[in-house]
Amino acid sequence: MSNSIISLIGNTPLVKTETLIKNPKVSLYLKLEGQNPGGSVKDRTAYNMIKSALERGEINKESKLIEATSGNTGIALAMIAGIFKLNIELVMPENSTIERVQTMRAYGAKVTLTDADGGIEYARDYAEEKVNSDGYFMINQFSNNDNWKAHYKTTGPEIWRDTKHKITHFVSSMGTTGTIMGTSTFLKEQNDTIQIVGVQPTDNSKIPGIRKWPLEYLPKIFDPKKVDQVIEVSDVEAKAMTQRLAKDEGIFAGMSSGGATSAAVRLCEELDEGVVVSIICDRGDRYLSSDLFL
């Protein structure tokens, strides 16, 4: 029995792939972050960012919170803000899937949709303008150290524990980069030979949740020294792997998870031996109105 929905955040399952790897000396484990109550890895960061801001007295129930999001962070922030009885406005491109928009509204958030052509960058600019002109408080996941610290405190230790300290490689998609920054920091403290692998889209590929940021929008929490290798994947690869995860592994996830898994499989094929962990960052049900599973 759990005392609160918040107590269900984290301690997500780590499952070994049954079909993707052929070398018996290489193990690929997938960490199922869709098992968080809000359906994604972003539950961890949303909780830590809001809880920490409350503890520092930066926000209270009278505050007007705002954040630009591509989806998962917004859903998680809407859920956590609702639990703490906080007002929040979430800003996202108008081409975001209807499931994401409706989920945020179900949790009680105000959702503002911006021009799709401007992408998440324009949504970020819009939120910044509201902070400057209307007195909003921006959570600012892209420069908020409580983002990556959530994974330093939870995701990294869970992986270290559940692999019995045997992990050799960690693979994660890079969006805000909080997951890879925090997990890398923890794992490198335990064993600095563990390789940290980031995943980015190839040029002209669009994969929700994975970005190759223009320099002026690069998350301030990102430290390239904490990533040993970057693997680029195409949207075609990511979509195909997402579909394969559902059909062959029974893992129903979004496209960024397919991208990360595709990179992890490619990495495993190059290894003689190793224990690789890759993040499955959310569930596939919030993409059903897209063409991801057609």
Automatic annotation (TrEMBL):
<dbReference type="InterPro" id="IPR001216">
    <property type="entry name" value="P-phosphate_BS"/>
</dbReference>
<keyword id="KW-0198">Cysteine biosynthesis</keyword>
<comment type="pathway">
    <text>Amino-acid biosynthesis; L-cysteine biosynthesis; L-cysteine from L-serine: step 2/2.</text>
</comment>
<keyword id="KW-0663">Pyridoxal phosphate</keyword>
<feature type="domain" description="Tryptophan synthase beta chain-like PALP">
    <location>
        <begin position="8"/>
        <end position="282"/>
    </location>
</feature>
<dbReference type="Pfam" id="PF00291">
    <property type="entry name" value="PALP"/>
</dbReference>
<dbReference type="GO" id="GO:0004124">
    <property type="term" value="F:cysteine synthase activity"/>
</dbReference>
<dbReference type="GO" id="GO:0006535">
    <property type="term" value="P:cysteine biosynthetic process from serine"/>
</dbReference>
<feature type="modified residue" description="N6-(pyridoxal phosphate)lysine">
    <location>
        <position position="42"/>
    </location>
</feature>
<dbReference type="InterPro" id="IPR005858">
    <property type="entry name" value="CysM"/>
</dbReference>
<keyword id="KW-0808">Transferase</keyword>
<dbReference type="InterPro" id="IPR050214">
    <property type="entry name" value="Cys_Synth/Cystath_Beta-Synth"/>
</dbReference>
<comment type="similarity">
    <text>Belongs to the cysteine synthase/cystathionine beta-synthase family.</text>
</comment>
<feature type="binding site">
    <location>
        <begin position="175"/>
        <end position="179"/>
    </location>
    <ligand>
        <name>pyridoxal 5'-phosphate</name>
    </ligand>
</feature>
<dbReference type="InterPro" id="IPR001926">
    <property type="entry name" value="TrpB-like_PALP"/>
</dbReference>
<dbReference type="InterPro" id="IPR005856">
    <property type="entry name" value="Cys_synth"/>
</dbReference>
<feature type="binding site">
    <location>
        <position position="256"/>
    </location>
    <ligand>
        <name>pyridoxal 5'-phosphate</name>
    </ligand>
</feature>
<feature type="binding site">
    <location>
        <position position="72"/>
    </location>
    <ligand>
        <name>pyridoxal 5'-phosphate</name>
    </ligand>
</feature>
<protein>
    <recommendedName>
        <fullName>Cysteine synthase</fullName>
        <ecNumber>2.5.1.47</ecNumber>
    </recommendedName>
</protein>
<dbReference type="InterPro" id="IPR036052">
    <property type="entry name" value="TrpB-like_PALP_sf"/>
</dbReference>
<keyword id="KW-0028">Amino-acid biosynthesis</keyword>
